[in-house]
């Protein structure tokens, strides 16, 4: 992926960009080149310690010969030869860097002031572009990450920021990657670390969430009562169709009560019996009054 990106960037850059011009050294340049080479041979072996440079595995060296980038590409890793007086080289670290974005004051789309911070992971894939096309690639990436974070979050509401962090981070990564492509930077990952909300707004959100949960609990309790009443209605219909089922249920209830509370025994008295007793007493009273 890195090699394909390098090739595409080189093809998209204009010819006037630094590091793309492929002109030769010229006559004076070649004369200075031979003089420098001759000086290195004359001062050998002392000069060899000054001309040989070691480039580590994760580094690349961009060599400027008489102000021009040599061979149009970076050198390394390993030993490289730097000619005295005419060669200058710059080391570029190709490892992944972390860019901590400090808390940014952001006014969201729904007019809420928040503080958001994040972190950006990036690496240099083209040492020539990083050295020749921008003065300080790390500072430029840091400032661009700050402005991009503010611009992207300014178009979102507070709820979208709180619930869609991954999508927002992906959008920021895409914008940063497109902007830093000419600098030889590949943005690997963007993360939003913290979203700080004012205390008063936190209390309002907590009260809103509590009210929503309470309303939901009441709805669930009402649904439970309705389902329970339907079940009891079905049970009453079953018991009315089979009188023996009521007796079995009575025995089961006695067993449960006897297990939990041994000193309490309940004998249910059907309402029909009470109505029958009341009817008998009322009839007897009418007969006595008639006789008198």
TrEMBL record:
The chain crosses the membrane at residues 30-52. It is found in: Membrane. It holds the Pfam family Band_7. The keyword Iron does not apply. It comes from the Eukaryota. SUPFAM superfamilies: Band 7/SPFH domain (SSF117892). Keywords: Membrane, Transmembrane, Transmembrane helix. One of its GO terms (cellular component) is plasma membrane. Residues 50-209 form the Band domain. SMART domains: PHB. Its main location: membrane. Belongs to the band 7/mec-2 family. This is Stomatin-like protein 3.
């Amino acid at each position: 992926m890195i090699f394909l990106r390098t090739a595409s960037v080189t093809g998209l850059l204009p010819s006037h960009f630094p590091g793309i011009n492929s002109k030769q050294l010229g006559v004076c340049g070649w004369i200075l080149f031979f003089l420098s080479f001759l000086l290195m041979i004359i001062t050998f072996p002392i000069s060899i310690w000054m001309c040989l440079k070691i480039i580590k595995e994760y580094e690349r060296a961009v060599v400027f010969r008489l102000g021009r980038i040599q061979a149009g590409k970076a050198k390394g890793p390993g030993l490289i030869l730097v000619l005295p007086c005419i060669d200058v080289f710059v080391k570029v670290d190709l490892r992944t860097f972390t860019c901590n974005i400090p808390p940014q004051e952001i006014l969201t789309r729904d007019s809420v002031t928040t503080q958001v911070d994040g972190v950006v992971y990036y690496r240099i894939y083209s040492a020539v572009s990083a050295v020749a096309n921008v003065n300080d690639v790390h500072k430029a990436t840091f400032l661009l990450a700050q402005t991009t974070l503010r611009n992207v979050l300014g178009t979102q509401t507070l709820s979208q920021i709180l619930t869609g962090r991954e999508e927002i981070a992906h959008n920021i990564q895409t914008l940063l990657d497109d902007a830093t492509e000419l600098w030889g930077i590949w943005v690997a990952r963007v993360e939003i670390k913290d979203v700080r909300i004012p205390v008063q707004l936190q209390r309002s959100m907590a009260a809103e969430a509590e009210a929503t949960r309470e309303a939901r609990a009441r709805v669930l309790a009402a649904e439970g009562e309705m389902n329970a009443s339907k079940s009891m209605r079905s049970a009453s219909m079953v018991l009315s169709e089979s009188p023996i089922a009521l007796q079995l249920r009575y025995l089961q209830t006695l067993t449960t009560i006897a297990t939990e509370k041994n000193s309490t025994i309940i004998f249910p008295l059907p309402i029909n019996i009470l109505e029958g007793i009341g009817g008998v007493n009322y009839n007897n009273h009418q007969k006595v009054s008639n006789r008198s």
